[in-house]
């Protein structure tokens, strides 16, 4: 009866704990979703940034025309006159996910627009990512650490920066796919189940569809497999976790058009194939060891190793030959910039020009992960006590993500889950030790109080009759056999534990030494719990502030606070609306590539370059035009059939991300293709200036003229609030361009190319003489090729 009652109470407690865990995870999902809605509450339901506008446009096309037209879609409104095959150059995971959600909502008679679904896709998947973090951390260190890690990830600012409502970018679903793939890998590693191995391959396929960062997975998992082999932790479970992923995952990845044969032809994937061969050699060695005698095993091992080394040498030779035949050694430009942080600045300035490709500063770590930076080392220590395959993977994930985040600030997003997992493990272990210590001291106190009460009672009744004493002695004598039996059982258990510890080569004394520090003084435990709660409260406050103030503002709508109150700058949408309603449908618009996606999606006009940046020469052409004098720039734009030129200028309102601040990158990218553009011609004693000390080349280039045309009329001085000084050339006229529209705050300026003047022959002698003189002058001039 007693055992059944104990079992019933334990099962009831487990059931209650499971229900409570589900409820807590539900609340974590609600928090993850709601904390990302500040952008909608404070501003409006609008798409953010630049790349999300292209994804939104693609999702619109997919929902309207279907998936087959999407795969074959040739977009003639981008990269004029080249165009772009959208189905073969885009990662379709995000658009397919949002399109499926939109179709499912409409099938349930929920009238949602495509834009609404796109705006809320990232907050929804942030809740999924938090739940996936719980599953992954649970496999590493238990459910307590999993719930803590999930709660931390739901609010971490680094992830919020890429998943607020309206941030419709690939990372919105890719982080969930990354964490879920890692979870299925660890689950397969712990269970050895082929079912989870198959699910792992499917999750990897979804990751490949969603983001180019899938190469991080296909390199991190082989590194962990190789680490397990080197440290002697090979098992059949490791083989089941890795081999199906390489075979099935690679086959599925090759089905994605943007990846195709790159899944087997680029250097980013070669490491996984090499580890695939190594694990088969190791598996063969272990199999032979199990069926042969030790003597034959030595001979067979020598043979297997010889053949394996020969095969590996052949494979390495083939890989080296393939790599050597490629100018970039088989690596993509972004991958090389990760392995060599100076590569992009030396050879690919277009990658280095992107702000999110710059290395982060130390304050950015505190901004994006806050107190987690101090908890991560404790989590690493906890992973080694004891070290398992799952915990070693978590440590390896953290180390690699720390390196990559130090190279590129964008990859702070990859570091965030690892930091949350380690911090969750650290907090869970700390709370476990502290609460166990408090429980130990409290139970010890109550036990002492209970033992003291019978002692006092015995003293008070010592002078009473001897009958009760005789009864007590009788009961003592009856209890002695039971005590002896319990001591005998305890000795047997101690003997078994001693044998087990001797077989495991672990001394009991060391085990005792390890267990002693786990019980802390009661006062220290209470103070530590209080400090951890305060630390968690400060973390929550920082995360809410970051979500509400730092990362909720959309780049398309800007705000500013002053003594007059809140000012809203809606110049971008104002300019795109003017283009949409005041230009012809077939007109071409030239701008720097940052604004290509927005111009195509919001103005519905053809652009020369956009944010895809797949053609460096085309972007260099636009950069060369912006860096050239007015006439040469007109010739370049006219050869591209450009009708309008759009520039972003922040000198009046103090907007720092304008084209003048980006201009040196235009010079560098243009000079990388057209050598007559030299960066030194735009610098005065090595300094970039637009004031009176600026160079003649700088003051006469097209970018300067289009930005500062009529700027002196605003205040009479021409004071630039971004550069903090008066401009150098204030009064000038445009000869080949005419201003057609400037937004309210002068943030976007649109110019139209003037038509080429026709040669009209007059009837008078004066006009004839004039025409002769002009023809003679033009005959002596050599027309320069605008591309040189």
From TrEMBL:
It holds the Pfam family STT3. Belongs to the STT3 family. Keywords: Endoplasmic reticulum, Glycoprotein, Glycosyltransferase, Magnesium, Manganese, Membrane, Metal-binding, Transferase, Transmembrane, Transmembrane helix. Residues 476-487 have a biased composition (Basic and acidic residues). It catalyses: a di-trans,poly-cis-dolichyl diphosphooligosaccharide + L-asparaginyl-[protein] = N(4)-(oligosaccharide-(1->4)-N-acetyl-beta-D-glucosaminyl-(1->4)-N-acetyl-beta-D-glucosaminyl)-L-asparaginyl-[protein] + a di-trans,poly-cis-dolichyl diphosphate + H(+). It is an enzyme of class 2 (transferase). Residues 770-780 have a biased composition (Low complexity). Coiled coil: none annotated. The chain crosses the membrane at residues 15-38, 112-136, 142-160, 172-197, 203-227, 239-264, 270-288, 300-324, 365-385, 392-409, 415-434, 518-541. Residues 459-475 have a biased composition (Polar residues). This is dolichyl-diphosphooligosaccharide--protein glycotransferase. Residues 758-769 have a biased composition (Basic residues). It is a multi-pass membrane protein. Residues 456-500, 758-788 are annotated as: Disordered. Catalytic subunit of the oligosaccharyl transferase (OST) complex that catalyzes the initial transfer of a defined glycan (Glc(3)Man(9)GlcNAc(2) in eukaryotes) from the lipid carrier dolichol-pyrophosphate to an asparagine residue within an Asn-X-Ser/Thr consensus motif in nascent polypeptide chains, the first step in protein N-glycosylation. N-glycosylation occurs cotranslationally and the complex associates with the Sec61 complex at the channel-forming translocon complex that mediates protein translocation across the endoplasmic reticulum (ER).
